[in-house]
Amino acid sequence: MEREVRLTVTLIFFICFSLAALTSWSIWSARKEVLAEVTTNSLNLTQALDKYTESTIRLSTLLLEGIGERLETEGTEPANIQRVRNLINNQHGQLAQLSSVVAYDKDGDWLMSSKDLPISRANSSDRLYFIHHSKDVSKDIFIGPPIRSRLTNEWVITVSKRFNDKNGGFAGVIVVTLGVKNFLTLFGKIDVGHDGAIGLAYTDGQLLVRYPFREQDMGKNFYQSPIYAKYLNEKPFGTASYASSLDGVERLYAFRKNEIYPLVTTVALGKKEALSKWLADSIMSIVIVISLLGAVALIGYLLIKDIRKRIKTEVNLLNAREALIKSNYQLQFLASNDQLTGLANRRSFDSTFLTESKRAQRKGSTLSLLMVDADFFKAYNDTYGHVAGDECLKAVSIAVKSCVRRPSDLVARYGGEELAIILPNTDCAGAVIIAKLILSTINALDLPHAGSTYGKVTVSIGIASRDGSATFEKQKSLIEEADAALYEAKLSGRNNFSIHTC
Predict the structure, then answer these.
(1) Looking at the structure, do residues 271 and 393 belong to the same domain, yes or no?
(2) Exactly one of 37, 69, 74, 417 is catalytic; which is it?
(3) Cα(405)–Cα(463) distance, integer angstroms
(4) One domain, residues 439 and 322
(5) pTM recorded for the entire structure
(6) Which domain holds residue 422?
(7) What is the spatial distance between Cα 232 and Cα 262, in angstroms, rounded to a whole number?
(8) Strand 147-148 relative to strand 155-164: parallel, antiparallel, unpaired?
(9) CA 27 to CA 280: how far, in whole Å?
């Protein structure tokens, strides 16, 4: 591409890229700010709800401890039970979430209730909280899973405590029931959008309350949810983003673990909904930027078109020149390389050998030459055909070339199945190393050859070396010496190498 066009395209590209990059950065920064704001607000909300839940449980605990202390010290006679009930009624207004307070004896039968209790439904020995306290001697409170109240048939959360008789034995259970509806009323006053949700659960994933309320979710356990399976193990509060297992909606979750009770409060906002305003603003920005980019591109196109008209002839000449250079390069490559093996041809070998011989004489360095010949190659052609022979020679050539790695070394097809390797600045010991590597590499190919005494394709190698003190004429005799060494290798049984006196 001509210089003027390149400069014009570069300028237009820079303008478009800068505008697009700036817009993308602005949009992405705005998105991060929106998500950061949502995260901060959600974390603050979880903290407020967590404190609300904690205070509710704490007040329930105080109420349970007061009742338990009276029952343990004053007994469960009817007069005392009535005094306890009056106490409960006086304190009922201090805990808005309170649904009822019930006391059961050691058999699970009703002792007292803040509400009228049908006799037919008075026993609760089958409830989880009763079973827990009857087996656990601790007087710690127990927060039970959501259940339907037998008093009101409403969903409630139970906070219970054991009380003992004068001998320290199990005397019964006191239960405070907190209405789920009361929690939902508070949660419903918080705007979490159409796809938002607020939840209260155990740290093991057992759901207690969820807004919006869905009865089929009550009692479910979400221990495999990322919040409970991963994030709570790393920190007591934080944020996460994933699709809900309940309805598949992707939400931004903020969670907080209570410092006292095994409870987790979560606030989730629909990610798509939270980003809706940002998305609308981004689309507007993108439309404006695309319009600007289109205008810039149109102006650039007209400018480039005008430049191309003025230098069309120059471009044609440059193209013709490049085509000519490419053709010359291809001709030069064809003239110096063997078409079958891809190695340097005899002409390239002669030229390189002459150059390296003079260099060795001038610098006083050592020059080595290896002549490599495929054993019983005529028999191979007679047995497998000339096409297979060509493929065999290609494979041998590739293997030999892989053994020579220095840029100054040259592997050439000397003639027929014979290869030559020029090793500048290499003494006889170095040439022997290369010869051994070639023999092991060819043998590793394991090419079948029924006409060979070895049963596979092998090569013989002749080695000759001269140092730089030799005259140029003696350097040229390297070819004869390497060829003679190759002949000796053939006579000594093939599949080996022979060294001319170095």
Answers:
(1) no
(2) 417
(3) 18
(4) no
(5) 0.53
(6) 337-499
(7) 12
(8) antiparallel
(9) 11
